[in-house]
Amino acid sequence: MTTPATTTPTAGPAAVRPRPVGRGRVIIAYRWEITKLVAQARTRATLAVCLIAPFVFVVLLDRQDRLPKDTLYGRWVHASGFATPLLILGFAAQWVFPLLTSIVAGDIFASEDQHGTWKTILTRSHSRSQIFWAKSLAAATFAVLVVTVLALSCLTAGVLLVGHQPLEGLSGTLLPPGRTAGLVLAAWATALPPLLGFTALGIMLSVLTRSSPAGIVGPIILGLLMQLYAFLNGADTIRHLLLVTPFDAWHGLFAAHPYYGPLRDGTFVSVAYIVICLAVAFTALRRRDITGG
Amino acid sequence: MVDGVPAVEAVGLVKRFGGLTAVDHVDLRVDVGEVYGILGPNGAGKTTFLRMLFGLIRPDAGTLRVFGRTWAEAGPAMLDGVAGFIESPRFYPYLSGRRNLELLAGLDGGDADSRIDQVLDVVDLAGRAGDKVGGYSFGMRQRLGVAASLLRDPRLLVLDEPANGLDPAGIRDMRALVTRLAGSGLTVLLSSHNMDEVEEICDNVTIMRTGRVVYHGSIDQLRAQAPDPSHRLATSDDEQAMRLSAEHPAVSVTAHHDGGLALRAQTADADGYLIALGRAGVAVRALHLEIAPLESLFFMLTETDPATGSAPAGLPRQPRDLTGATP
């Protein structure tokens, strides 16, 4: 080791350039959370799968005679390329969306416990609140990005490999290609509120359990349990309060007379999940003693 | 910084984990420019104290000020001018050493990023800075921890057992680095369970045992209180050697439990006794230091009597202020 000539104490922190405060610090921490996500093979692999899988799916469907007729728009997958993204959207709502978002959200806090790095980042100049919001924002960014990539990939795969034929709406009327493309993207956009609800759920489990597996698997299991309850035709009020119900809100867009009630209700439910889960996670992180690592 | 404000001041600090009191009414004061050691066996409460200093855990009672600021008053700003690491420093294994430092410099803000090359040179990691930290040895991570601390251009450097887990060469290099940093005027707060390390580096020391302070004062004052060094002695005629010890009242010679003799005496008295042995025709076949004086005192202060679960009778149970200064 060499002589630490550069480390001779100076006039102290006041002598250096002013440091950002408040939201400025959140943005700095957010930028570094994004950098960490980009450096992780898992996040890159997830995005790559979202980009490639729809093309593989369409090719495989194209080679088989039997169609998934029991699924919404399953019987249309050979007739119109616009059916592909809607078929995948219906399928993804069951467990793929919770998985895709919790890969990051369920790990982003627990990984600091796993690596023992809470003490590394919390002994710098950022507060727990700033780190919390930076991480939550990064998890939400990933969730939006991964759904955007999947939506565009599904639409592109369908249109390129099957074609841009008109698609039949849920009321039986044919929708022209231009309008259908817009509706498909809008349908995928309606998945964002419940998806962010699952993101918040993953964040909460990540903070509370301090375990990446629990943070990642937990939202998937909870999502499947909610699906199971919906299949059982239980109390309708409870069904409306489930986080998986808003994933079906896009059906209203494809009716001859579009209806938006489920979309509005689903957004309220999703926001409630987001607020409650983030409040619990925020309080837990602020109060906990960092004793590990 | 206000003149006279200590770098660290703890008053009546308490931290409990369930039924366990990890830090029990600890008073401690580290003045600016001091090299201060917190010494104690594992479980003494040293790391818990340092975690409170960094705001990682909150005290249940008492106050802890760093450069006059408490966590409740200043939040993370309390750590302005403070750097260091708790236990072994930890980094993101999938990022390179340099990338980890860039991340931390980004969180620090200011001009920390401009010091990355310099601090990598200081800890001799410039050549491996591009490698992922997952491939670093323990010693390299320890040195990267020091580099990460120096990025903050600290006035107070807090190191928790910096030589822990290092090989002998690593320990030597780490001690030399800490000594050089201390020589540059930095205030250093060092925790260790190694008496030699603290004796070599520190001016003042607090010794903790089961969460409580059992001693604090200067190393020189501690040395003055230390018992005589203990040697193991092998001679050609142990019986005659025991008889001759009666003529040297400053020397204690007893049978050693593993054979041979146990010799307790200050160096000058031991020299006189050993010369007398030679003159009496008793050959000294082996003499080696078993317990250094300060190490011996450390054991006396920190070891628990297995029968009572407390410090052995006759040893201090309460904090002692040998300096006369208010802690």
TrEMBL record, chain A:
It holds the Pfam family ABC2_membrane_4. Coiled coil: none annotated. Keywords: Membrane, Transmembrane, Transmembrane helix. The keyword Ligase does not apply. The chain crosses the membrane at residues 45-61, 73-97, 137-162, 183-208, 214-232, 266-285. PANTHER family: INTEGRAL MEMBRANE PROTEIN-RELATED, MEMBRANE PROTEIN. This is ABC-type transport system involved in multi-copper enzyme maturation, permease component.
Automatic annotation (TrEMBL), chain B:
Keywords: ATP-binding, Nucleotide-binding, Transport. Residues 8-235 form the ABC transporter domain. It comes from the Bacteria. Coiled coil: none annotated. SMART domains: AAA (SM00382). Gene3D superfamilies: P-loop containing nucleotide triphosphate hydrolases (3.40.50.300). PROSITE patterns: ABC_TRANSPORTER_1 (PS00211), ABC_TRANSPORTER_2 (PS50893). Transmembrane segments: none annotated. The keyword ATP-binding applies. Residues 308-327 are annotated as: Disordered. One of its GO terms (molecular function) is ATP hydrolysis activity. Belongs to the ABC transporter superfamily. This is ABC-type multidrug transport system, ATPase component. It comes from Frankia torreyi.
